[in-house]
């Protein structure tokens, strides 16, 4: 089970939880193989070059949908050369500010940014990640002129946000929730379609900017031409894992929302996300670093 990110991160932890459950369920060892680099393209190329026998899988994320447009030349076509097996989860994002920042709502932030063009910064993890794309979509839909600063990761941006060196951020709820609850950060809105149970009083960005929705996600992929019976068998067992109370609780603890569905439903999610982010990337003229 190839993971396109280093060991110890959220996606890696989720992959290991699922791999362990499948190993015990099926009596066959599932080994997590971390292959970070090139915005997940190294891992994806390894997948598409693997035999379509069900023995090599990959944890895909929103980065795969983004990369389809962000990179002009790839040695694969993600949708053409892979088969969706099963979705695993959504990763909610939050729009947050340092408590010293004057905005109390999304409307306040938009007004503040329009009154001070080019003076307010929004920080996110690297280009191609869900928070980065959420900030890009926010700029497009709100029409604000803000300075978008991508950091190497949450571990790098969070100290600067907590100290007030930067003002506004989009990030995953799991890394921000404890600071929000401790009033060290102020959540303006969540980027999900609906409000979150963990922050029930915090509105969605879409309540101010209708149609706005952005979240991370991950799911399991197989190489093209993997037999249907293998895909369906894996989908069935992964969904059983997600229905397991212990697994569901573990994932909820990580701050993600379980996403159970068929292979076809996961394929539609990938296609929809690819089209959605393609429009944002083209509108903004984004290029890989």
Summarize the structure.
It contains 11 helices and 11 strands.
What does this structure look like?
With 289 residues, this protein is α/β, with parallel strands linked by helices. It folds into 2 domains: 2-91 and 216-284, Bordetella uptake gene, domain 1 (D-Maltodextrin-Binding Protein, domain 2), CATH 3.40.190.150; 93-207, Periplasmic binding protein-like II (D-Maltodextrin-Binding Protein, domain 2), CATH 3.40.190.10. The protein is built from 11 helices and 11 strands. The protein has helices spanning 10-26, 41-48, 62-70, 78-81, 106-115, 130-142, 154-163, 173-181, 228-243, 245-253, 263-284, and strands spanning 2-3, 33-34, 58-61, 82-91, 93-97, 121-124, 147-150, 168-172, 186-190, 216-223, 257-258. The strands form 3 sheets. A 5-stranded mixed sheet has the order 7-6-8-5-9, with helices on both faces. A 4-stranded antiparallel sheet has the order 3-10-4-11, sandwiched between helices. Helix 1 (10-26) links the parallel strand 1 and strand 2. Helix 1 (10-26) crosses helix 9, helix 3 (62-70) packs across helix 11 (263-284) and helix 6 crosses helix 11 (263-284). The longest helix has 22 residues, at 263-284. It is globular, with a radius of gyration of 19 Å. It starts with a strand and ends in a 5-residue tail after the last helix. The mean pLDDT is 95.
């Amino acid at each position: 089970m190839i993971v396109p990110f280093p060991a110890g991160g959220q996606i890696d932890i989720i992959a290991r939880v699922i791999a362990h459950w499948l190993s015990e369920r099926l009596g066959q060892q599932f080994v997590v193989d971390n292959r970070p680099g090139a915005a997940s393209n190294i891992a994806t190329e390894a997948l598409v070059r693997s035999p379509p026998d069900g023995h090599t899988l990959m944890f895909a994320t929103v980065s795969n949908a983004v990369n389809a447009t962000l990179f002009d030349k790839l040695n694969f076509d993600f949708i053409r050369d892979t088969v969706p097996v099963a979705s695993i989860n959504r990763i909610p994002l939050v729009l947050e500010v340092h408590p010293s920042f004057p905005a109390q709502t999304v409307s306040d932030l938009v007004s503040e940014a329009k009154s001070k063009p080019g003076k307010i910064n929004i920080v996110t993890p690297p280009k191609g990640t869900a928070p980065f794309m959420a900030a890009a979509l926010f700029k497009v839909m709100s029409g604000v002129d803000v300075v978008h600063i991508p950091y190497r990761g949450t571990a790098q941006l969070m100290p600067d946000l907590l100290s007030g060196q930067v003002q506004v951020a989009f990030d995953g709820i799991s890394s921000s929730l404890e600071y929000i609850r401790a009033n060290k950060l102020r959540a303006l809105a969540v980027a999900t379609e609906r409000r979150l149970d963990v922050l029930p009083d915090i509105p969605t960005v879409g309540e101010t900017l209708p149609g706005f929705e952005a979240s991370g996600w991950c799911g399991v992929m197989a190489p093209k031409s993997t037999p249907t019976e293998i895909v369906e068998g894996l989908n069935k067992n992964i969904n059983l894992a997600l229905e397991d109370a212990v697994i569901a609780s573990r994932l909820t603890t990580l701050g993600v929302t379980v996403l159970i569905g068929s292979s076809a439903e996961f394929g539609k999610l990938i296609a929809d996300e690819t089209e959605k982010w393609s429009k944002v990337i083209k509108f903004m003229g984004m290029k890989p670093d």
